[in-house]
Design a protein that fits this description.
- The structure is a single chain.
- The protein is flat.
- The two termini are 67 Å apart.
- By secondary structure, the protein is of the alpha+beta class.
- Strand 20, helix 17 and strand 21 form a beta-alpha-beta unit.
- It has 17 helices and 21 strands.
Length: 602
């Protein structure tokens, strides 16, 4: 009887463990939905920084040649045009320069090879060089001519700047350093000025539809560029996505640290879709592994309860040993001595020696933890220093091999009889695979399997999160296909499914990325438009009706139309259920008045 009771409690604990673990999987998926996108941005930024470094090194090489030539010229007491031509013909330092000219420091006059002259005293590069600085300027080619870079540097006579050496270099010289091949060769990398004007060198950017200004292109596709412009003015890194037709582009921009130039690096969404598939399979593996593990535990414990207490303790020690050798890192701290002892697995897991050597080091920022996770790691560290009983944190860290991986740190503190902390014990556990699995599971949980739009549960959750302020105005559109049963009966369920998928695609294309589209079931769809007036919602409903009526089906005889009911927040209701009920009335009113229309019921 005692063994049966013990087994019951153990079995109950295992069931609870299984339930809690499943809950954590789905809970983590909510936090990890953007993991792939963040990793993509990180990769794009790395590539942009690499290209920027190569480009700056190439420019630095040209400036070094230019400085050497300026030093050579400065050794001559006087220099005439003929002398410059002789130097240009015989000096190897000229081999990379298309044109070489010298501007008089007093007058700003440049004597040309054809005998003419031009004054450049008002040019920014001349004024900058007369102040002792190097200068670089982009020159757009005319009438099919090649684009060039203008480089200038001061020429000294003693401690005085007497003239400015000016050269031009064909941008083709830098093609090898500014055209990387990544994301299957379908990425785009280009340089712009601080105002978004595209400098005509870098990776091809044909998808910009002939635009010469990237910011203007984004505005032409209704993308709000205010945050990008603000970051560019502050010389900050930007990460964002924009859609070009049916293709979504992940984009990162970084300052070049040269003039006001910026590097933009983009990759189309389909190049990273394989990672999404990997997450899907990984999520299925986790659920199966958890279930299988719990079954094994049940069998193992049913066997162990028949053994003596000593045997149970022995098996428990073996299990603890298995945890230590499973790729985890353990640590132990002494508050009195302010010491921290970390297991040898740390250098194997991270590829470097521990940065934190004592308990008080947890108050410092960790140099290898991703910037976005620094604050939560530091908060956990301060709690540990203060002696809080227990704590845990999930964070991303840059490993020695250059990869970024998720880890979880868990600790527990023991106190003396006066409540002062004595010892702390903890573990660092790699959870990178689990976090990626969770991201895949999130997508499976939220999407309708046939159409790919949100299911009812996910749609209702997202919509209810939008009802924070009554100063905002939103609209709920309830849509039902007209005579859909006749399509199924007359043309078959294959065409019916095709009509549902086509409807979902039209709805997604008709709204903004910030709006929500869902399928409630059957031929009933629902749309939530953020920050729109009642008039705007009605106009959008009319557009949807027209777009659906003109859509091509697999059968020329099948015509799909819809009826739409509209309810607005906060005028018509303050929650999803209220808006849905009123929109449903509007839907039936639209059907009663002839279908293929919309209705607003106040």
């Amino acid at each position: 009887m005692r063994e049966i009771k013990s087994f019951f409690w153990i079995f109950l604990i295992i069931i609870m463990f299984f339930g809690v673990t499943l809950f954590q999987v789905f809970e983590y998926s909510r936090h990890c939905k953007s993991l792939i996108e963040k990793q993509t941005y990180f990769t794009l930024q790395e590539h942009a920084e690499s290209v920027g470094n190569h480009f700056r090194m190439s420019i630095e090489e040209q400036f070094n040649l230019l400085d050497a030539l300026a030093s050579y010229i400065s050794e001559k007491e006087s220099l005439y045009l003929g002398d410059l031509l002789d130097i240009e013909e015989n000096n190897l330092l000229f081999r990379n320069f298309d044109e070489v000219e010298i501007a008089n420091g007093s007058t700003g006059v440049v004597l040309r090879k054809d005998g003419g002259f031009v004054e450049v005293s008002d040019e920014g590069y001349f004024q900058n060089s007369m102040q002792g600085n190097r200068s670089i300027q982009y020159l757009q080619g005319e009438q099919g001519g090649s684009n060039k870079l203008l480089l200038s540097t001061p020429i000294y006579q003693g401690d005085n700047i007497t003239s400015v050496l000016i050269v031009t270099v064909d941008v083709k010289l830098f093609e090898n350093s500014i055209c990387p091949d990544f994301f299957e060769g379908k990425s785009h990398l280009f340089f712009t000025t601080g105002q978004g004007e595209i400098l005509d060198f870098g990776h091809p950017y044909n998808h910009l539809q002939g635009q010469n200004n990237f910011l203007s292109y984004l505005e032409s596709i209704n993308y709000n560029t205010s945050e990008i412009i603000e970051n560019m003015n502050g010389r900050l890194v930007s990460s964002f996505t924009y859609s070009n037709g049916n293709e979504k582009y992940f984009t990162t921009s970084i300052p070049l640290e040269m003039n006001d130039w910026y590097i933009f690096c983009s990759a189309p969404e389909h190049t990273i879709s394989k990672f999404v598939d990997d997450f899907k399979h990984l999520g299925e593996t986790v659920i199966f592994t958890i279930f299988l593990t719990c079954c094994i535990f049940c069998l193992l414990i049913s066997f162990l309860i028949k053994r003596s207490g000593a045997l149970i303790k022995k098996e428990h020690k073996r299990f603890k040993l298995a945890e230590e050798i499973a790729g985890m890192v353990s640590f132990e701290g002494d508050y009195g001595k302010d010491t921290l002892s970390i297991s040898d697995n740390y250098s194997i897991l991270f590829g470097r020696e521990p940065v934190i050597q004592k308990i008080s080091d947890f108050a410092k920022k960790h140099p290898y933890i991703i910037q976005d996770d620094q604050d939560i790691f530091l908060k956990m560290g301060l709690d540990l220093i203060k002696g809080r009983d227990f704590g845990e944190v999930e964070y991303r860290v840059l490993c020695g091999d250059g990869s970024v991986q998720w880890h979880q740190l868990v600790y527990r503190v023991w106190h003396d009889k006066n409540g002062l902390p004595l010892k702390c014990y903890g573990m660092i556990v790699p959870i990178d695979r689990q976090m990626k699995e969770i991201s895949k599971l999130q997508m499976q949980v939220e999407k309708d399997p046939l159409t790919g739009v949100l299911n009812r549960t996910a749609f209702e959750v997202y919509v209810n999160l939008c009802f924070n302020s009554k100063n905002e105005s939103h609209a709920l559109l309830l849509l039902d296909l007209d005579n859909f049963k006749q399509i199924n009966d007359g043309y078959g369920h294959a065409l019916g499914d095709h009509a549902l998928v086509t409807t979902a695609e039209i709805l997604k294309a008709s709204v903004r990325n910030s709006d929500y589209v869902g399928r409630l079931g059957g031929d009933e769809f629902i749309i939530f438009l953020k920050n729109v007036s009642q008039e705007q919602a009605a106009r959008k409903a009319g557009e949807i009706c027209a777009a659906l009526e003109s859509a091509e089906m697999q059968s020329n005889e099948a015509v799909v139309t819809c009826s739409i009911g509209i309810a607005c927040y906060p005028k018509d209701g303050c929650g999803f259920d209220e808006l849905y009920e009123l929109a449903d009335k509007g839907l039936y009113k639209a059907k009663d008045t002839g279908k293929n229309s919309f209705s607003i019921v106040n």
